[in-house]
Design a protein that fits this description.
Elements lengths: L3 H16 L4 H17 L2 H16 L6 H15 L1 H12 L6 H17 L2 H19 L3 H15 L6 H10 L3 H25 L19 H23 L5 H18 L4 H35 L1 H10 L3 H15 L5 H18 L4 H14 L8 H9 L7 H6 L2 H16 L1 H11 L1
Length: 433
């Protein structure tokens, strides 16, 4: 099998396996092995490619950054610093119209960032922030829409597991990806903050009670702020300007997270538990990365990748980019962002390079779409997760979707900005060199 026939067979087989509930990593592995054997007719060649993929793809030090970043987030989440920052922000902004929504946005964003997943962040912190919003608002749908949008916002902030995985699969420097995502993420944060502030009239904060959540001492709040900022800055700046490798920067970030946790009284048993949790969570991701790298080999050997690249390139840059975005949106309705990336990276990145699309711009667009897709109606997972997490099953789900539209509009506007004028938002990594 070569060319378009191989591409059709590979994609159909993948779709069938996933539709029957096979995990994406397993489906990628099965189809890749079968495709390589079908193209070469030799199990010896199959074993050689498997060994080469494992050696070349998984021996790089960047691979260790994934469990280290997850460990950093685990320490931050368990230390209670996110709760401290939320409580302090909520009390500070309690007299401002829309202040409770801004505080919830900050809290849920940081929770999703620490958890390494927008869904996990929404589950872990929604009840805390929703409780404060409901004390000040009669509008449950607005509150839930704000919380769901904030959870998606947290996953746009570098560094993230999605960006590290993108780096491994596409052979791009992770530090450059962090810097490329920094400016667009800040633009989205500011725009969404303005949107939340402007929609403050929807939340009855003018009659908010003068009291608020339990007060946190200023030194504790400042320690929390400085700790999170330092951990993030070390990873982004250290790897972005290439003072440190990504693994070294992630190691320092994890050490800062551990210091925060210990300063908050985390005991050795809890530290060990956090390490085990991070290890268990990162193992499936590493397996997915290996399967995706093997999948790229299968596409190359069978000619399916070249056939797909030619077909996509024939559409032109604008239409091809629209197809990529549409495919990502469809995939994330049934899969998580990492799985969607694993299925498409080996196809989209070479095609984009052929069309002259900047690889960093494609990364930014991809991250914005993949992390924003769980908000898209009618199947937006974040909306359903947030509603279930706070036990508000009686709130009509489409009312909540109506209140995530501002976030979706901001994300789409940013995608268009990057697509039309990529240098506006990706100048930072090129400036650093």
């Amino acid at each position: 099998m070569i060319g378009i026939g191989a591409a059709t067979a590979i994609f159909v087989a993948m779709a069938v396996l996933i539709a029957f509930g096979v995990q994406v990593a397993i489906a990628l592995g099965i189809v890749s092995l079968a495709a390589i054997y079908g193209a070469t007719g030799s199990w010896q060649e199959v074993s050689r490619l498997v060994a080469a993929t494992a050696y070349d793809g998984l021996r790089t030090d960047i691979i260790i950054a994934i469990p280290l970043l997850m460990l950093m987030g685990e320490f931050i989440a368990r230390s209670g610093v996110v709760t401290d920052i939320f409580r302090a922000t909520s009390r500070t902004l309690r007299h401002m119209r829309g202040g409770a929504a801004l505080a919830a946005t900050i809290g849920n964003s940081l929770s999703a960032f620490a958890a390494g997943s927008s869904v996990a962040g929404a589950v872990g912190f929604s009840r805390i922030s929703y409780g404060e919003l409901r004390r000040r608002s009669d509008d449950s749908a607005t509150s839930l829409g704000t919380i769901a949008s904030a959870a998606a916002l947290g996953m746009l902030l570098p560094p993230s597991i999605l960006m590290v995985t993108w780096s491994i699969l596409t052979r791009q420097p992770a530090g450059a990806l962090f810097l490329a995502m920094l400016v667009p993420a800040l633009l989205v944060v500011v725009a969404f903050g303005v949107s939340v502030r402007g929609a403050g009239t929807a939340l009855n904060t003018s009659s908010a009670p003068k009291d608020g959540p339990p007060e946190t001492s200023p030194p504790r709040v400042w320690t929390s702020l400085i700790g999170i900022a330092l951990a993030v800055a070390v990873v982004i700046v250290g790897s972005g300007v290439r003072i440190l490798s990504v693994a070294e920067a992630a190691s320092l970030g994890a050490a800062i997270g551990l210091a925060l946790a210990i300063s908050r009284g985390m005991r050795p048993a809890t530290i060990v538990e956090a390490i085990l949790v991070a290890g268990r969570a990162s193992a499936p991701i590493l397996l997915l990365i290996f399967a995706a790298l093997l999948y790229a080999q299968a596409l190359a050997v069978t000619g399916a990748g070249a056939a797909f690249e030619a077909a996509l390139a024939s559409l032109g840059a604008a239409a091809a980019l629209a197809v990529m975005i549409a495919v990502w949106l469809v995939l994330v309705t049934v899969l998580d962002a990492l799985s969607a990336l694993a299925l498409t990276a080996a196809l989209f990145v070479p095609a984009a390079a052929t069309l002259g699309i900047d690889p960093l711009a494609l990364t930014v667009i991809g991250v914005l779409v993949l992390e924003g897709a769980p908000l898209v109606p009618p199947l937006g997972l974040l909306v359903f997760t947030t509603r279930a997490a706070v036990g508000e099953d009686g709130v009509p789900v489409f009312d909540i979707f109506r209140h995530v539209l501002p976030m979706l509009a901001i994300l789409m506007a940013t995608v268009l900005l990057v697509a039309i004028v990529p240098k506006v938002v990706i100048w930072l990594p090129y400036l650093v060199g």
